[in-house]
Design goal:
This protein is of the alpha+beta class. It is about 40% helix and about 25% strand. The protein contains eleven helices and 14 strands. The strands form two sheets. Strands 3, 4, 5, 7, 10, 12, 13 and 14 form an eight-stranded antiparallel beta sheet that branches. Strand 8 and strand 9 form a beta hairpin. The longest helix is centred in the middle third of the chain and has 29 residues. The radius of gyration is 21 Å and the shape is globular. It starts with a strand and ends with a helix.
């Protein structure tokens, strides 16, 4: 499913290919991987298509801040589950005069039938995103007896009106990250692969709908913070992960990120539904699990992630996953 991208309006490069190239044949999964190198960006795209669902994972390094987009007119009407995994960007769509902000580790659900506008991106970091596009009819069926928020979005989509599920994006939960990784790593044979990927895409939709419903019902505390405070808290999260081997104290983290300790602790809890060091612990252990499954030794993983000893790492791992690192490696 392609889009025209350019460093100037009118100087277009088509990215993603024609949607016809990804048509499902005999009801099976179609998958392709493309690399692009332009004067304005380098990109890698993985595209997966099953009946009624189109998936794209992108890893892009922008060489200039401002980009231009225009439609290719070969894209069917779809609803997008959007996950920004790293980097940041802002898109202004001239069609509906709306701005869409994408920050690292944020997610939303968007109905945008046409994109014709500009984007602003951070050239200092890789911009990675994951999207699940549901065909409109499939999404309408799934949303019919779901949450109120999804039903409102479905009503907008049904009448061709642009909408995103939340005015503000929400964090990507661990469960969502695991779903994304499961989809990208799926190695089931063809028939089972379709069933597995479809189930994981629906699971992602359920997780997003539940997160937004909870935020609405609880009047998400993070919504009370200013844009500056939220940016500071996201910076704190990123800094914490970058310094996973020697994490700073709360006081040090607050100073680095330009926010007081109380706002940092309360805001972190509101945005990520976890304490600062609870989040760090979860991140380290989930990352450790991935490294072990990739074949790294227990000792290497414990050392890489800053644990004081292999025993300390093993105890923490068993407490979280109810299995020892050794049994996981099997």
């Amino acid at each position: 499913m392609g889009i025209n991208v350019g460093k100037n309006y009118g100087a277009w490069k088509k990215v993603g290919g024609s949607f016809d190239d990804l048509r499902v044949r005999n009801g099976l999964v179609t998958q392709k991987k493309d690399k692009y190198s332009f004067s304005f960006s380098d990109a890698e795209l993985v595209q997966i298509n099953i009946p009624g669902i189109y998936i794209v994972y992108g890893d892009i390094l922008f060489k200039q801040q401002q980009m231009y987009f225009s439609p290719t007119n070969d894209v069917p009407d779809m609803i997008k589950l959007r996950f920004t995994l790293s980097g940041s960007g802002t898109i202004f769509n001239r069609v509906n005069k709306q701005q869409y902000i994408f920050n690292s580790n944020q997610q939303n659900i968007i109905y945008m039938p046409e994109l014709d506008g500009t984007g602003q991106y951070d050239t200092g970091h890789s911009y990675r995103f994951f999207e699940v596009h549901f065909a409109k009819e499939k999404f309408l069926q799934l949303a019919e007896h779901s949450t109120k928020a999804l039903q409102v979005l479905a009503d907008h989509a049904d009448t061709g009106r642009y909408m995103q599920l939340g005015e503000q994006n929400l964090p990507i939960s661990w469960a969502m990250q695991h779903c994304i990784r499961d989809i990208l790593d799926c190695d089931y044979p063809e028939g089972l692969k379709q069933m597995f990927i479809e189930s994981k895409c629906i699971e992602l939709l359920v997780l997003q709908a539940e997160a937004f419903e909870r935020a609405i019902n609880q009047k998400e505390p993070a919504a009370l913070y200013s844009d500056y405070d939220r940016e500071c808290i996201y910076h704190a999260r990123d800094y914490l992960i970058e310094n996973i081997h020697q994490p700073p104290s709360v006081a040090e983290l607050a100073k680095v990120c330009g926010i007081n300790e109380f706002k940092l602790k309360q805001g972190f809890k509101g945005l990520f539904d976890n304490s600062i060091f609870g989040y760090l612990s979860d991140y380290r252990l989930n990352h450790a699990k991935e490294l072990l499954l990739q074949g790294l030794s227990i000792k290497s993983v414990a050392f890489m992630l800053g644990y004081s000893s292999v025993q300390h790492f093993s105890n923490a791992f068993r407490k979280k996953f109810a299995v020892t690192p050794g049994k996981l490696k099997g």
